Amino acid sequence: MNRISTDIAVVGGGVIGLAIALRLRADGREVMIIEPNEPGSGASYGNAGTVANYAVIPVGTPSVLRNFLSLLLNPNSPLAIRTSALPTLFPWLARFAYESLPHRYRENAGQIAELVSDASSAWTEFAAEIGASNFLSAKGCLYLYHTRKAFQAACADIELRRSYGVSQELLSASEVLGLEPRLPGFEGGGLFFPKAINLSDPGEVMRLLSAAVKRVGVEFVQTSVTGMSRKQNGLRIAASPYEVHAHTVVIAAGAHSRKLAAEIGDPVQLDTERGYHVEYDMPEPPIERPVCPTAHGFYFCPLRGRLRVAGLVELGGLTAPENPQLLQALARNARRFFPELGAPSRTWLGFRPSMPNSVPVIRPSKGGKDVILAFGHGHIGLTLAPRTARLVSAILTSKGK
Ligand SMILES: Cc1cc2nc3c(=O)[nH]c(=O)nc-3n(C[C@H](O)[C@H](O)[C@H](O)COP(=O)(O)OP(=O)(O)OC[C@H]3O[C@@H](n4cnc5c(N)ncnc54)[C@H](O)[C@@H]3O)c2cc1C
């Protein structure tokens, strides 16, 4: 075993771990990231790229709970479950059902609203810091409703967003076409979030973020953490072929964080919502901004040199391979909007780190702030990376245990 030591070890180099490392370095701390793969190549690579300052509605809502079975049975719905994963998933699903009750949904939305409220300004600053300002686009984001009924069903969520001060504008079907003329017509109209920003290439931004983190002197150790324990003078981290000693550990291993947190005495109900994307190479995507046909649960994302169609939720754990039926459904539904799309240029499966209440875990471990938990960002981890980094920094600089 090679023994190495550091002040702070960040486990996981996704957008959350990288943003935290950058921030803690700026605080003057010695920081190491332990990450087995290319930094930023997990969920942080393949997402829809929206800095979703409007995304205050948790996944579990009274309406999702009411319609859960019909969502599962409809082949065009955004939700699927791998039956083989059901026994393992049961506790998470039971908690998800509880968190979808009206009083819990409102409470969860309140917590998320507080976290996302400054996301656009925080990302604008963060992008400048890492040299990625060119990859930010400030054209807002658009939700589409197929029918008037679908729009009416969304009114409770729209009202809740309004109560949290989210900027949103109701658009008629013709106003939608005014913004995005190449979309097909929609009876139900749209909802526009004018202050949302988005990344025109999340993968490139991850590359710039990782380079910025290296530039400020964060050391990268390329391996997996397999175990962790508290010792008298800090933490011992098993990361073969190394044994790492650190004063503080930040667990930011995304969907893989549950086992690590449990080892340190913090059981959490983290699981994964698997998400997919298909991409179509093209010089000019047919839309100007991310567009989400809400019934399908995916976003059309105009990226540099390609159109990405990203979303869906498949409950099914971390090890099963891509589900070809979901990828086919994604491509089939994308062609309903843009019939000229041919076969996808590439496909992708990623693992959202998801809590049953959609609220991320950003706090010290129960045993003290020598271990900080920073995971569970679900659908909004990209959005919340700068804010999470600031919160972790505040925990570590505050006085007290
Ligand atoms: C289809 C899809 C669309 C999305 N769209 C958006 C969006 O538009 N806006 C938004 O804000 N969010 C979006 N998200 C969510 C967002 O991508 C995630 O919340 C975010 O990337 C989570 O970041 P992370 O750093 O926690 O996880 P990850 O990016 O997955 O990083 C975790 C890292 O930990 C490493 N790791 C795992 N185990 C270990 C170990 N034992 N030791 C060391 N390292 C380990 C992994 O290799 C990985 O690199 C989307 C997600 C998906 C799947």
Automatic annotation (TrEMBL):
Coiled-coil spans in chain: none
Pfam families named among the record's database cross-references: DAO (PF01266)
Keywords: Oxidoreductase
Gene3D superfamilies given in the database record: D-Amino Acid Oxidase, subunit A, domain 2, FAD/NAD(P)-binding domain
UniProt KW Oxidoreductase keyword: yes
PANTHER family named among the record's database cross-references: GLYCINE OXIDASE, SARCOSINE DEHYDROGENASE-RELATED
Descriptive protein name: D-amino-acid dehydrogenase
Native organism taxonomy: Bacteria, Pseudomonadati, Pseudomonadota, Alphaproteobacteria, Hyphomicrobiales
